[in-house]
């Protein structure tokens, strides 16, 4: 059975620590490691920026710029692989600060044994892969949302403020994305329909399905009928609703013309002559 090889970069200015880490990794039987080592802050940041490793082990003590600084700088440059900070004993405040700054884990150097190191590396990589999968899912959702041909928008159920709109909504309503994000759902409702619209949007929509039609107003003041579908979702930690608002003005015009033709056979033909 092939053994998965994990690329590890150790950032530590002490060669003895490199030897200790190399020996600890060699004791781990379930995984195989390629260990690289750099000893200075500048070199480490350059190597991390290349994104060639699966995990980084970073010593806190690196001279004038410490491992916490390196962690922040690496993440600011877009580092996606997990970074595990190695600290000295009694550095609890540093450990907490590291986790807040985005470290995948922290280990106390004097207490590291092979099983602990293996578990920390494995969990860190698994978490990083899960987060990347979530980011990919979010990217796919945004792509589908933005490219959907029907106007769609997300709003906060407490403040009614728009949280997201797709390209079709911007085209149909005439507002830019930035303008929408400064507005609430009240701003796309005719004033005389406002209270009923807010009540419908907030309480009247079923979990799935169409509620009927409501009137909407564009930036230029023109009013159109929209067939609306809505469902509650969680959006960036908030209670929100996702709304699809299909402009049915043309469909209503055609239906009205068809009714007239049925009531007065030949009327459409007569108009062509």
List keywords for this structure.
single chain; 273 residues; alpha/beta; Rossmann fold; Beta-Lactamase; 2 domains; five-stranded parallel β-sheet; 10 helices; elongated
Can you give a write-up of this model?
By secondary structure, the protein is α/β, with parallel strands linked by helices. The chain has 2 domains: 5-143, 3-Layer(aba) Sandwich (Rossmann fold); 148-255, 2-Layer Sandwich (Beta-Lactamase), CATH 3.30.450. Helix content is 43%, strand content 25%. The chain contains 10 helices and 10 strands. It has helices at residues 15-26, 41-49, 67-76, 92-101, 114-147, 167-173, 177-181, 194-204, 249-263, 267-271; strands at 5-11, 32-38, 55-59, 83-87, 105-108, 152-156, 162-165, 210-217, 223-235, 238-247. The strands form 2 sheets. The chain has a 5-stranded parallel sheet with strand order 2-1-3-4-5, sandwiched between helices. Helix 1 links the parallel strand 1 (5-11) and strand 2. Helix 2 (41-49) runs parallel beside helix 3 (67-76). The longest helix has 34 residues, at 114-147. The chain is elongated. The relative contact order is 0.08.
